[in-house]
Write a structure and sequence with these properties.
The protein is α/β, with parallel strands linked by helices. It is 39% helix and 11% strand. It has helices spanning 27-38, 74-80, 100-121, 124-136, 138-153, 164-167, 171-180, 182-208, 226-230, 268-273, 277-289, 325-335, 350-358, 400-404, 409-419, 426-435, 446-449, 479-491, and strands at residues 6-10, 43-45, 212-217, 245-249, 259-264, 292-295, 303-308, 318-321, 340-342, 363-366, 388-391, 441-445. It has an eight-stranded parallel β-sheet with strand order 9-6-3-2-1-12-11-10. Strands 5-4-7-8 form a four-stranded antiparallel β-sheet, with no helix packed on it.
């Protein structure tokens, strides 16, 4: 697929300076989109939007389809009449790092209160939209709301510790649980409805300003998720419900024992037998909620590292063939195209390149990786083609200024040989370098635009704490930055291109 020549900003919604301790889909999001429009940016890239499972990572979720309730704007719910404005008085307006336990304790009860008010007094037109949402999404929504209600009933314990009949998804036990948890599941349906209405309203606002949304799909799902609980046949589980094998990557120069991620691996034979229905549903839903999709760990579709579940590290795994072209041919037929690009960083073998190129799926290039040695020059602009998405850094990197303060003398000399001594910072030098490349998309994290250092880093891979806490303060989106970006977008021929604006209630706010 040929992508248009565009530039944009990577910013996950949690990093918006919204009221209440975490970024959300409220006024700060619209202020950010106004900044993008003024800066002539045609892309907004986010991370996965699902409800968190382990820790705070967007890549660990209890559902491949549901939305994260913490991203719902309480202010928008007040505007709609589902919550009294006085209920927000206790919410902090100070922009501090995200303290998730405090946010959950203060926000979730208000979301449930708003959902209860909706169920009690929603007018006919709103109730009609809600019923339409529930019917259209029954295929994932019903499993998720019951799973989430049971997870609360059993105090967040993993589903395999629940009573045997529930853990095994036995119909009679599920019917009884649905009857007993009717109120709880109804509230969760409404909360998901709130999420998708607010997200689609944001997408409409983007489309009206010629901004396309870039989403993100993690290749694997969590064991403790509605997907594994409800569709055990699609995953490599033993008779005792435990994973037979789990995901990870082998030992390399960065880790002597590799990385044991621990996600259950797919039963690709079962998925192939039913025409990859689950994957078609997943990526059709992703394409419906975003304009373009980044496929995380793309090499796993060619070959994946299979680790016996009893192994404590990734050392004793093996490479196993993935679905390769077979899956993507089915996706292309079902979706009418492949609006994806591949996260293909790290050690990539020729078969992965052949898969990506044969499918005409763009790959990625990260400038922070381009200066370490001559072999890394594959990420430099003169080595790229249009079928690439170029970044200064990603959510897993330090900010460019933070990276600059830690690079070797060799890397520093290499950067300076190419871009000279940039008076406004190496971050702007790399932004210019990325945008002047032939790559189709050029993306920079907002931290690089704001010239922030390591204090603004969003995530450090393989560290269990301290991640996904950063938010930018009010007043950061200055007009001079917007003008600087706009001039750069114009001179590099990356001005926004019109977006088809959806019509009708599908994008009701």
């Amino acid at each position: 697929m040929v992508f248009p020549r565009l530039t944009g900003i990577l910013l996950h919604p949690i990093s918006l300076p919204s009221r209440g301790g975490i970024g959300d889909f409220g006024p700060a999001a619209y202020e950010f989109l106004n900044f993008l429009a003024e800066a002539r940016q045609g892309l907004w890239q986010v991370l996965p939007l699902g409800p968190p499972a382990k820790g705070n990572s967007p890549y660990s979720s209890t559902s491949a389809f549901a939305g994260n309730p913490l991203l719902i704007s309480l202010e928008r719910l007040v505007e709609k009449g589902w919550l009294d404005g006085s209920r927000l008085a206790s919410l902090s307006e100070n922009i501090t790092p995200i303290y998730y336990e405090d946010v959950i304790a203060s926000k979730v009860p208000l979301l449930n209160e708003a959902a209860g008010n909706f169920l009690e007094r929603a007018p006919e037109h709103a109730r009609g939209r809600f019923q339409w949402f529930c019917e259209e999404n029954r295929w994932w929504l019903e499993d998720f709301v019951l799973f989430d209600a049971l997870r609360e009933r059993y105090h967040g314990q993993q589903w395999d510790t629940w009573p045997r009949e529930l853990a095994r998804h036995e119909p009679a036990a599920l019917d009884q649980a649905r009857a007993e948890l009717s109120r709880e599941t109804n509230l969760r349906r409404v909360v998901q409805f709130f999420f998708w209405e607010q997200w689609r309203a944001l997408r409409l606002y983007c489309a009206q300003r010629s901004i396309r949304v870039v989403g993100d799909i993690a290749i694997f799902v969590d064991y403790d998720s509605a997907d594994v609980w409800a569709r055990r046949d699609l995953f490599r589980l033993r008779d005792d419900l435990q994973p037979e094998v789990v995901s990870g990557v082998p030992p390399d120069a960065f880790s002597a024992t590799g990385q044991r991620w621990g996600n259950p691996l797919y039963n690709w034979d079962a998925m192939r037998a039913n025409g990859y229905e689950w994957w078609i549903q997943r990526l059709r839903w992703a394409a419906h909620t975003c304009d373009f999709i980044r496929l995380d760990h793309f090499r796993g579709f060619a070959q994946f590292w299979e680790i016996p579940a009893h192994e404590p590290t990734a050392m004793h795994g093996r490479w196993v063939d993935g679905p390769r072209e077979d899956l993507f041919y089915k996706l292309r037929d079902a979706l009418g195209g492949l609006p994806f690009f591949a996260e293909d960083l790290g050690i990539i073998t020729p078969d992965v390149n052949a898969l990506r190129d044969g499918l005409q799926i763009p790959g990625m290039a990260v400038l922070q990786f381009a200066f370490g040695d001559p072999g890394a020059h594959i990420y430099l602009p003169h080595r790229l083609h249009e079928d690439r998405v170029i970044y200064t850094g990603t959510h897993d990197n330090d900010t460019t200024l933070g990276w600059w303060n830690s690079v070797s003398d060799y890397e520093r000399r290499s950067v300076q040989a190419l871009v000279g001594n940039c008076e406004d910072g190496v971050n702007w030098a790399l932004i210019r370098l990325a945008q002047s490349s032939v790559a189709s998309f050029s993306v920079a994290p907002l931290q690089d635009v704001l010239s922030l250092g390591s204090e603004a880093r969003l995530n450090t891979p393989s560290t269990p704490t301290g991640n996904y806490h950063w938010r930018y303060p009010h007043g950061s989106l200055r007009r001079d930055l917007a003008e600087k970006l706009a001039r750069l977008a114009e001179v590099t021929d990356r001005l926004p291109q019109p977006v088809s604006v959806p019509q009708g209630d599908d994008f009701a706010a």
